[in-house]
Give the backbone structure.
Amino acid sequence: MRKYQINNNRTPMPVQDHHERIHNFDEVAQGYTEEMAIAEANRCIQCKTRPCVKGCPVEVPIPEFIKLITERNFEGAIDKIKEKNVLPAICGRVCPQESQCEVVCTLGKIKGSKPVAIGRLERFVADWEQRVKGIGEFDEGACVDLSGNPKVAVIGAGPAGLTCAGELAKMEYDVTIFEAFHKTGGVLVYGIPEFRLPKEIVRKEIDNLRECGVKIRMNSVIGQLFDLKDLEEQGFQAFFIAVGAGLPIFLKVPGIELNGVLSANEYLTRVNLMKAYRKDYDTMVDEGDTIAVLGGGNVTMDSARTALRLGAKKVIVVYRRSEAEIPARREEYEHAVEEGVEFHFLRNPTKIIGDGKGFVKEMEVIKMRLGEPDASGRRRPIEIPGSEYTMPVDLVIMAIGTRANPLLTQNTAGLQLNKWGYIEVNKQMQTSIPNVFAGGDIVTGSATVISAMGAGKDAARAIHKYMQEKLSPSE
Amino acid sequence: MGWKILEKKFLNPDQTLYELVIAAPDIAKKAKGGNFVILRISEQGERFPLTVADYDREKGTITIVVMKAGKSTTELSLMEVGDEILDFVGPLGKCAHIDKYEHPVVLVGGGVGIAPIYPQSVELKEKGNHVIAILGARTKELIFWEEKFRALDVEVIITTDDGTHGQKGFVTDRLRELMEKQPLSQVIAIGPLIMMKFVALLTNGSKDLPKVPTTVSLNPIMVDGTGMCGGCRFLTLDGQTKFACVDGPDVDGHNVDYDNLMARNSRFQKVETERKEEFDHKCRLMAQADKLNAEGACED
């Protein structure tokens, strides 16, 4: 067997200095240079087992695109990724690689060695393409016109919907995405902050889809404006429901009705989608010196780091488990710590106290300890009686999850839901209505961008199979 | 693609109240009384909700009635026929529950709340109900659509705080008189929170008056209008947290914590006032500049 020269160390990602970056919304991670990318790509040993590909929900041919980088063939590399992934610039930035492709990397299993930085390389080639091709204005005339082909409706322009629509357009279906908001991208534009995923990048990826023939109709709340029957009358033969996560959960403690208590959904939407951080925009956002953010996931980190950038003096993440159980991407957690976000682990709010004028003044929290593992496999937090104390806060942002949005599901007769209100699907992503498919958070509950994209991709295949059977019934 | 303003009318001499008819054929097909729409005027604009005041399925139009309050509603009042609203989303929220009732149904519209009781009056009338509409405002100039209501052949009662039109007093005075006179099946109240609170108190059953089921329409601060932000949440008296956008906007008037909702409406008051002053100042400057331009003073 050939002996490889192993390079243990990953090429570090250049980042904006943390003293600087907490005063702006520019991207934190600045991306590899060509030389950095080639150096990192050369670390890949091109192993035969290719565990990374199996770790990727959309099965990107990772070793192949990395090899092309080592050959300085960046165009070939991006084309290779795009065979499987229509949104590479986004995935390279927001995928939890450490629990997907990178966690299984052969190089990472060697003692003292770190896995190849697959996400950073994916981002590099996607950015390279955008840089070379330029982020120009969208050209309507350059779009492929798929009108006249069988029509498919995709509901929701988030990661699942965009991926599914992109795949269907590749198969030449006349796809229309219906989006409730005035902007496309779903969580990519309302949820994930500019400093982690520049919106210009999202726009360009979506423009690419439109150039491939995907049509998008904004300001259309399906279930209210049209129901699926109306869309059938408009000629749509199959549907993909990808309406995403829904109603934010509020802790059941006294005081959540006070001004200054808000969901992370609202906080982030005001700042990201509505650009409340810019003075020339009309949308307002609650401000304060001391801000508590509840939770431990990516949305918690995004909210906490946004609060710092909006000028908060002190931002405290309050999480009921310990550091080890934090579900956020490691990199986001580390960036948050670096930027000065404080973490109060093993604490849970019991009461939010007002100032007598309807605004938040303090929060009472109780100390927790970890008990036996629960159904999620994580150790269950248990209250320590009598350990309550209060902390002064101006805002309390709840990033503790969402529940199913009922808008579309309650207005769709015959659509089977589970007991939490999420849509039931079979292995082919098909719902109880044969021509209706579903995927993403409205099926799984809150999950990741890439798993939603995986669902979108699977659904596109299933819809294609369904349509083929429908259009050419077997003898 | 925007949504074109087809008609515009100021409803009072001070021009603080105005009516817009907007081309929105798809929304007009689905809209019903109780629904609301969300507007965004410009790229920098905020999203703000307004209740549907009328719809015409054949002409494909939605009518809204707006009271100038903050920057956005003032900016909207400056738009003219032919201009396009950038984003117009709807119909949102649950539509009103319309039934055939045994006894009369009373609709109470206070101030700009007169508008949204109109479509519900139409729908209730179509179902064959005895409909009584109480239109109330501070003063004569703020009562609008009186003829439009009378044309529906519903019983119309006008009341103003200062007695300049109709009877002098509050909508609750008129409602009490009706309740004393006859049994009522349903009360629907839309207007300022304080008005809806007192209507609900009156109809909640007391020593001398029976309880009448009462619906009120909530219009709290919201962003998306589809259940996602939770900004429009309100407390019910039995301890639940509900979202006005998906559980409402029409809700059981006897199960709302009005005081909390009033406090929640002051959430952005300070900044709102500052922004409005800034905007008014800018408008004054622009007007001055226009004047100077017209006089030729600014020509090179």
Q: What stands out?
A: Chain A touches chain B through 38 residues (CB under 8 Å). Chain A is about 35% helix and 15% strand.
